[in-house]
Amino acid sequence: MNFSDHTEIARRRYEYALGIDTRDYALLRSVFTDRITMDFQDYSGQAPATLDADDWVAGCRRLFDGLDATHHVMTNPIIDIQGDAAQCRMHMTAEHFLKNERGSSLYAIGGYYVDQLSRTKGRWLINAVTLKLLWQRGNRDIMELAMAG
């Protein structure tokens, strides 16, 4: 592994977080291959799904535009590369904020992401994401309220 690959792979995860927090959905879309597998089973209870990246980003837009603010922090990247495939495991904390009538305005989660990436046209892109939760706190209802708009 060379330093350039390591830097670019970690950057994809940072861009993912920045795209969400700044509502820059073009940036968020740019980190993915056209088809992606998303495994958020620890969070949602739903089985992993493979879908178009455009559809994933559209779903993110519906959720995150409904929140007042978010703050995603990514740390401690562990990256393994084999040819044109890579895995990046990175710790995360995600805070979500929404003023509401149902209680606390904060819902936070912590854990780690395991991303699978492929070198596509000379650029590292995420083709699969797994979220592993270690903890949650606050008012999870704000996520449903955000989706309801």
Protein model, in words:
- The protein is an alpha+beta fold.
- The chain has helices at 3-21, 25-30, 41-44, 53-64, 141-148, and strands at residues 32-39, 49-52, 69-82, 85-97, 106-120, 123-138.
- Strands 2-1-6-5-4-3 form a 6-stranded mixed sheet.
- It is globular and about 50 Å long.
Strand content: over 45%
**Total beta strand runs:** 6
Q: Report the oligomer.
A: single chain
Q: Major sheet: size, sense and barrel closure?
A: 6 strands, mixed
Structural class computed from helices and strand pairing: alpha+beta
Spatial order of the strands in the main sheet?
Answer: 2-1-6-5-4-3
| Pattern of helices and strands | HHEHEHEEEEH
**Global shape:** globular
Our measurement of the CA-to-CA distance between the termini, rounded to an integer number of angstroms, reads 45 Å
Portion of residues within helices: 25-40%
Count of alpha and pi helical runs: 5
In the predicted model, the low-confidence regions spanning at least 5 consecutive residues are none
Radius of gyration: 15 Å
Mean pLDDT: 96
